[in-house]
Design brief:
The complex is a heterodimer of chains A (509) and B (100).
Chain A (H helix, E strand, L loop, with lengths): L19 H9 L5 H19 L2 E4 L1 H17 L10 E5 L26 H8 L3 E6 L33 H8 L5 E5 L6 H7 L2 E4 L20 E5 L2 H11 L29 E5 H4 L4 H16 L3 E5 L7 H16 L17 H12 L2 H14 L4 H22 L5 E5 L15 H5 L6 H6 L3 E8 L5 E7 L5 H13 L16 H4 L4
Parallel strand pairs in A: 2-3, 2-4, 7-8, 7-9
Antiparallel strand pairs in A: 1-3, 4-6, 5-6, 5-10, 9-11, 10-11
Helix pairs in contact in A: 2-3, 5-6, 10-12, 10-13
Chain B lengths: L6 H10 L6 H17 L1 H5 L29 H5 L5 E2 L2 E2 L10
Antiparallel strand pairs in B: 1-2
The chains are: A alpha/beta (509), B mainly alpha (100).
Chain lengths: 509, 100
């Protein structure tokens, strides 16, 4: 495999940024200082963040201090780590000691965690430089980043479009060329959907491969942290740095992080690829034709490609919108005005709790708490929640049947390209449908990734999704890197932000 | 359009969820929750006879570790985000009725 070509130098803010692997190699070799990389990063952010609004918090001082430590290690001949000097953005539901962690919610607007998430510690150990916290749908509940209490993030490809969600800030930060890497969390598609809409690579690992310690819980049986990157090989490198068993997460698998980098040159000769036909009818023509074209790329590279029908997967959406709110209503009970976050006073504890939550949560979070509480309440539990759990079993069994015949499955990531800001905010159901193709892998706990592949309607990027069975990351990445090599290079970020005409594109239609 | 949830049901659920809702919010959620529940009707009608429930994708087991001493957060750290603190504890408004 040949390496990606260098598009510019890290010290020149006007040039296109390099990949994470290129930056780390040059910092480790002493060819460029981590400090200059970080300074160039903040120059890019400073030039365009006002239009994009990818971040809730920027941590320039801490980033420069961390960069200086990397440079000191390089000068002293110590190992600065595999991601030495690589700037990374963190979704603002990952706890960072001493740095505000808001979940884009008023209830945590001023909360400063007393500890770091495991992934944050591991990134620091790997030499990566956290540059800020990224905007999200409030408590990761949404598919457009419009439910953030601090205002929406805009899609760098077209400022009138949503970046997707809930990890829209992380996707936009990578697509805008602010950072080569970012972390998000994926409960029903919250990494893959925004990655697809922003033309970047997004990976949801197998449930339990990445520690959730310090990830603020939304739906604990579905949540998983994963990478955003501009290339498949960068995503593999990031997953290797954050994955692996963690004693602080009781659901963490007792396995090492999947070593995907080493199989990226293996090709797909003989790999059995199933194209999920049921999904193609529910996707717009540009999204379904991208899947067909990616299947041809894999077949031309020697994969054995065939169609497969797995109709049970389409029931996943309804099961998800019962299970996820149920778990959320329980997880968000902790925001009661007692131990952290906002408090609105009242004459007694229960009134204080109810007023605090009324003032602190936005409409989408309240809606899901109400729905989750309803389906868990006496008299409805079996009809809704237990039935959804049985459908979850049906989804897992349907996947198991398909994986008897195939190593990986191919599907659209999203039903359409990025939609207009405001287009779906008044109809929650319409917004929920944006997750139709991503949800099944969360229900089953399987890995999935999206790779930018083509330009669709309006010249916006279209992603192709690759599913694999539990711990099938290596086969998934083998397919991913071949799909990437056959993709339209114009379809992947970073977008050359310098050429964006902000005067025209910034206006609301 | 599906029938909206009753005002009593919405009030009951809001009380369970410790959410103070405005009358407008109650009306909105009554109709939106009905629409969402209507959408998931297809799932309720699926034949799942004999299908076990999956609460978790993994085969979860109890995780034990040796009972070793280790550092943890300090009391100051734990209380650092609390809205009100007194004598090293979380301070809340009264929970029971007035003391006799």
């Amino acid at each position: 495999m040949s390496g990606p070509t260098s598009q510019g130098t890290a010290s020149d803010p006007s040039s296109m940024p390099e990949t994470a692997i290129e930056i780390a190699a040059r910092v480790r070799a002493g060819e460029v200082s981590a400090r200059s990389v970080v300074e160039a990063t903040f120059a890019r952010i400073g030039a365009h963040e006002a239009e994009i609004h990818a971040f809730t918090t920027l941590t320039g001082e801490q980033a420069l201090a961390a960069a200086d430590e990397v440079d000191r290690k390089v000068a002293a001949g110590e190992d600065p780590g595999p991601l030495a000097g690589v700037p990374i953005a963190l979704k603002d539901n990952l706890c960072t000691r001493g740095v505000t962690t808001t979940c884009s919610s008023k209830i945590l607007e001023h909360w400063v965690p007393p500890y770091d998430a495991t992934v944050v510690r591991r990134l620091a150990r790997a030499g990566a430089i956290a540059v800020g916290k990224t905007n999200l749908d409030e408590f990761a509940m949404g598919s457009s980043t419009e439910s953030s209490a601090f205002g929406p993030t805009r899609n760098p490809w077209d400022l009138t479009k949503v970046p997707g969600g809930s990890s829209g800030g992380s996707a936009a930060a990578v697509a805008a060329g602010f950072v080569p890497l970012a972390l998000g969390s994926d409960t029903g598609g919250s990494i893959r959907q925004p990655a697809a809409l922003c033309g970047v690579v997004g990976v949801k690992p197998t449930y339990g491969v990445v520690s959730r310690y310090g990830l603020i819980a939304f739906a604990s049986s579905l949540d998983q942290i994963g990478p955003f990157a501009t290339t498949v090989s960068d995503a593999a490198a990031l997953l290797e740095s954050i994955g692996g068993h963690d004693a602080r997460d009781s659901t963490s698998l007792a396995v090492a992080a999947p070593r995907c980098s080493e199989v990226l040159g293996d090709g797909v000769e003989g790999l059995r690829v199933g194209v999920i036909g049921d999904f193609l009818n529910d996707a717009s023509p540009d999204c379904s034709s991208a899947v067909r074209a990616a299947a041809e790329v894999l077949a031309a590279a020697g994969a054995k490609v065939d169609d497969v029908s797995i109709p049970e997967l389409l029931h996943g959406l309804s099961a998800y919108y019962l299970i996820a709110p149920a778990e959320a209503s329980s997880n968000l009970a902790r925001y009661d005005g007692v131990r952290y976050g906002l408090r609105v006073d009242g004459p007694d504890v229960e009134t204080m709790n109810a007023r605090t939550r009324a003032a602190g949560f936005g409409p989408e979070v309240k809606r899901r708490i109400m729905l989750g509480t309803y389906v868990l309440s006496a008299g409805y539990y079996d009809a809704y929640y237990a039935q959804a759990q049985r459908v979850r079993t049906l989804v897992a069994r349907a996947f198991a049947r398909a994986y008897g015949q195939f190593d990986v499955l191919l599907a659209p990531t999203t039903p359409s390209v990025a939609f207009d800001l405001g287009a779906k905010t008044s109809d929650p159901l319409e917004m929920y449908l944006a997750d139709l193709f991503t949800i099944p892998s969360n229900l089953a706990g399987h890995p999935a990734m999206t790779v930018p592949f083509a330009l669709g309607e309006g010249g916006l990027p279209v992603g192709v999704q690759i599913f694999a069975p539990a711990l099938g990351e290596r086969e998934m990445f083998r397919a991913g890197v071949v799909v990437e090599a056959g993709a339209d290079p114009a379809a992947s970020g970073p977008v050359p932000m310098g050429s964006v005409d902000t005067g025209a594109a910034g206006g609301v239609r | 359009m599906p029938e909206d949830l009753s005002a009593e049901t919405v009030a009951h659920v809001a009380r369970l969820a410790r959410l103070e809702l405005t009358p407008e919010e109650s009306e909105t959620y009554a109709s939106q929750l009905s629409a969402i529940l209507e959408h998931v009707e297809a799932v309720r009608k699926l034949d799942t006879t004999g299908v076990p429930e999956t609460s978790h994708a993994l085969d979860l087991r109890n995780v034990l570790r040796p009972d070793d001493l280790a550092t943890s957060l300090t009391p100051e750290d734990v209380l650092s985000g609390a809205p009100a603190v007194e004598d090293g504890r979380f301070l809340v408004p009264r929970i029971l009725g007035e003391a006799p």
